[in-house]
Hints:
This protein is an alpha+beta fold. The protein has a domain of 29 residues. 43% of the residues lie in helices and 26% in strands.
Amino acid sequence: xxxxxxxxxxxxxxxxxxxxxxxxxxxxQLFHRTGVSVHDEDGHYFTVDDAFRQKIDKLVEEADRSHx
Length: 68
């Protein structure tokens, strides 16, 4: 199932297109599960903390609802 590209702002305030929000979420769950870390997505940097993980989880839920 393909979802539309979702833009999220990086730490610099620049839009970063995320083509597969579920794959992005899965990566965060595997490699940035707890604590605070930095994720690099094609030259865009994101500080990954609980608030960021919750934001991505919410975007996945919204994408799932809009795709039904």
